[in-house]
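W.,

You were right to be curious about this one. When I first looked at the sequence I had no strong expectations either way, so I just let the prediction run and decided to look at it fresh. Below is the sequence, 511 residues in total, followed by the output.
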Amino acid sequence: MNRPLHPVMFAGTGSDVGKSIIAAAFCRILLQDGYHPAPFKAQNMALNSFATPDGLEIGRAQAVQAEAAGIPCHTDMNPLLLKPQSDHTSQVVLHGRPIGNRDAYDFWRTPQGNADGLLSQLPNSPTPQLPQIDFRREVCEAYDRLAARYQPIVMEGAGSISEINLRHHDLVNMPMARHARARVILVGDIDRGGVFASVYGSIALQTPEDRRLIRGIIINKFRGDMRLFDEGRRMLEEICGVPVLGVIPYFNHIHIEEEDSVSLAMKSKQLAQGKVNVAVIMLKHLSNFTDFDALERDARLHLFYTNNVDDIRQADIIILPGTKSTLDDLYEIRRNGVAQAILRARREGATVLGICGGYQMMGQEVCDPEHVEGDIDRLPGLGLLPVSTVMAGGKVTRQVSFNAGMHGYEIHQGETMPVEGAAPSPLNHLADGRTDGYLADEKCMGTYIHGILDNPAFVNRLLKPYEAKLSAADTPFDYAAYKQQQYDLLADHVRRYVDMDRFYQILRDDE
């Protein structure tokens, strides 16, 4: 039996240094080495979320890390989730359930996280004020429950650990490491430059107590000849007094689902010849963009993100994705001409698929009488499906099985029903007897199910009208097997460049 290990936290010198991916790698490595690890991030901020098996909501990164660890995801892995709704406000999700909206300044300046009045900030909110909530206690108790079931816990910090102005309100980084008695590994991104200053400064700005928790440094995203950094590695260890456990090269041959949509702007925006072209509409509040990861890897088609009306009209398949603000994005695509381009493409023979908020937009109207999303009471939809949506305060979050063996999950607000006189025509039949979505014909449909495109059978159905474009050599893509292969490749890559003996020594050391 493996000797028990201390928990480990991968903290960062800043945002987007690779903490999530490195945590996923070590979840896989520890699983391969005979341990029973689990991921943990006390507080996450992301629009890309996931539904747990018991129908609750967590950040996508922790769901990916749990998959790498070979275990089902649970809200204790990400007890507090903030879903941005504007530049200043976020929806607060605690233990998988939304408890209201919060102004960012108010959230960070209130001692220990006071949830009083969260929902009262919503216009005409039908929900009374919430009692005071001690977020620090909630996230610590979630960690304790998780640590009682798994060993070791692979923790992830948030942003930079050196935001000293927020130190007393921090729930995620060093205070959480202190609670867990974790060994902290500091991750620095050499690709963005200034790695010496960012690593040294991050350590120097810690209190003496917190500085002692930092047991190692990982330099991430290195490009070029590794030997050129040998002297830099020695100098960094000397000035920081902390060992550099590894220098991990930048990679683009391994594909792990991402949590932040920043990289979408760098993805392809052009049509491709000889493939089925799939245009995902680039909504302002686009969420759950990982719905399209499987399609990006499928050799039979070419997926791109766009708001270009000419490209939309030339695409074979147009997907209206999920959104955090259906009414706001519906208003915007009507304003910028995207809605008209979609309607014209549909008339000219293109397939249109709506997922979640995109499904709501495809209907006759979207109504928000309780002002769940904002000040707009009603907007006409695109009129592609004979359904109507009414927004409601409650949120649906659940994993679902459908159509004899397919799997996905729902995260949405609002109820969508056929309009008066429209015949029922569900797209999917769920295992529990319910139905989902609406099918106008094989080229026009909508669904609430995220992850529906991870199912090869559904993708084959979507591509059936385009068989003439597909080569006989093209075969359905097994995304589930592909993801497992990618986790193994990631683990191999990190093992190769990290001193694993020293890593395990740090996690076993009682001092």
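Here's what jumped out at me. The CA atoms of residues 56 and 96 lie 4 Å apart. And, maybe more interesting for your project: The first strand starts at residue 8 and ends at 12.

Coffee later to discuss?

I.
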